[in-house]
Every structure is written in C-alpha cells, then in structure tokens.
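Schema walk-through. Below, the input block comes first and the output block second. Nothing else is stored per chain. Lengths vary across the set, and this one has 157 residues.
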Amino acid sequence: MDLIYPLLVTLVIETPIYFFLLKKKSFLYFIILLMMNVTSNLSFNLCYGYLTNNALWFLIVGEIIVFLLEALIIKILKLYGSILKCLIISFISNSASLVVGLILNYIIKISAYNNTYFVICIILSIIYLFEFLLVFVFSIIKNRKINDGTNNSNYEN
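--- output ---
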C-alpha cells in the first residue's frame, strides 16, 4: 500500500490534467502519459520512502526533478509546443497531485478509522477506472468522427 496509494493519487489527478491540457489527444497518448506517471511516481516513492526515510528535503528536490523530467518527456514527445508551456503543464499537474495527496494524508492521519487508507485507495481506483473508460470512449468517438469525415469526403469526390 505504501506505493499503491501515492500512485493512485498521481494517476487520478495528473493523467487527466495532462491529457486535457496537451494538444495531442488519443488513447495512445493517454497510455504514454499513464506509463510516464507510473514510472516517475514509483521511482520517486521508492527513493523517498526507502532511501531517505521520508525526508522533507527529498520530497522537495524529488518533486522538482519529477516535474522537470515530465516536462522534458512532454517536449520530446511533442505533445505541446514550447518548453515553457510543457513546464507549466507539468508544474500544474504535479502541484495538483501533491496538494491532493497531502490533503488525503491529513484526512487519513486524523481519521479515527483504521480502514480509511484502504477505502481511499478503493475510491481512487474506481475514479481512475472511470477516467480510463472516459478517455477510451472519447478516443473511439473521435476516431469515428475522423473516419466519418474521411468517408464523406470520398463520396463527394
């Protein structure tokens, strides 16, 4: 659960922000964003929890490194134009998941129930599954519109 919970928070918050703020929108890019977030989050949290024993300095430095690396990946994949816009989108996404994660950690900490952590993970999983399905349906609808437009222009010629 030490790795699953922060990963779920990241996926629920960051992936849709990235997906909807970036120029290119397809199921493939959604999967790429998913893999980017999984890799960066698991790498960060493995180092943060196991190598530094949750040191505040590593949280700050690690978040900065992740934000810069994700902006670089977005730029390399040409999901957005300028590096400044990539940095802004990455900053927004990473800041949002950090703030939501800290709020949820506070709720878990003050909760009198032992299963709050588990319940939040289940809720986050359901939300992400819903997001995943929405993007999948969105991609199918978009592809149909593109195909319909192509078929209509063929009939006109």
